[in-house]
Design brief:
heterodimer, A: 77% helix, B: mainly alpha, elongated
Chain lengths: 124, 131
């Protein structure tokens, strides 16, 4: 249980550290990885939705047993993003630069699955 | 079953179902968006990131609908998700950066956000009995 709490707490902190600056970095993203972002509703929709997921992680860290099913969903959300970015990189439709933060998502996605196994064992 | 719980169940079931109905087809509509709302989408990672994150949230809503009292804490994240998109689209529309379509989606999200806040407050008393 302690492992699960720590992993989700760390994931939430990591997510906030990576995502919050993106609210102020739309122009920078366009300059670093041109062309500029043309549909800002998807950019800010992604940032806002992903930030809300970080709140889910922190809530799971507080009550892993009660929110146990959300652990699996959290892992799916993390690994889904990894698959999407991997496919886009492979098709040459996005920069390798985006693969760097997504590596963190891959690690946390796998740790979430392990945490779920531990919590299920503890609950049984 | 308590009326507040029934309200929360229906609200989250409708929100999750509506969201899946709108969002899942978007996985296959990137080209369509680029054609009908030019210019073309230049950063597909944010497009698919947005759709994926939002779809995962609709599944969270359906989990909450299954047992709103147990999952009441997760309603806080649901409220943030709804308001974050709603407020973002309002600001972007105000700056002339999005058209009516995203604004409509944002207003619907804000409406659900207000109803989510109501459900969270209404379940306060029920949640005390959870532990």
């Amino acid at each position: 249980m302690r492992f699960c709490r720590r992993v989700f707490f760390l994931a939430g902190l990591y997510g906030f550290a990576v995502l919050l600056p993106l609210y102020f970095a739309e122009g920078l993203v366009g300059r670093l990885v041109p062309p500029e972002v043309t549909h800002p509703e998807f950019y800010y929709g992604f940032v806002g939705g992903a930030l809300a997921w970080q709140v889910v992680y922190l809530l799971v860290a507080l009550e892993p047993l009660r929110l146990q099913p959300l652990i699996v969903l959290s892992a799916l959300a993390k690994l889904g993003l990894v698959v999407a970015v991997a496919l886009l990189v492979e098709e040459g439709r996005t920069s390798l630069l985006f693969a760097v933060p997504v590596m963190g998502d891959l690690v946390f996605g796998l740790l979430f699955l392990y945490a779920y196994a531990l919590v299920r064992r503890a609950a049984a | 079953m308590h009326a507040n719980v029934i309200y929360a169940r229906w609200l989250y079931a409708v929100a999750g179902s509506w969201g899946l109905l709108i969002l899942v087809p978007m996985f296959f509509l990137e080209d369509y968006f680029s054609r009908t709302s030019p210019p073309a989408i230049t950063h597909p990672e944010y497009y698919y990131g947005f759709v994926g994150v939002a779809v995962a949230f609709q599944l969270l809503f359906l989990i909450i609908a299954a047992d709103p009292v147990r999952y009441r804490p997760a309603m806080l994240a649901a409220i943030i998700e709804k308001f974050s998109y709603g407020i973002a689209t309002l600001v972007l529309y105000n700056h002339g950066r999005v058209w009516g379509g995203p604004l409509f989606g944002g207003v619907v999200d804000l409406a659900f956000g207000v109803l989510f806040v109501a459900a969270y407050v209404m379940l306060r008393r029920n949640a005390r009995y959870y532990a």
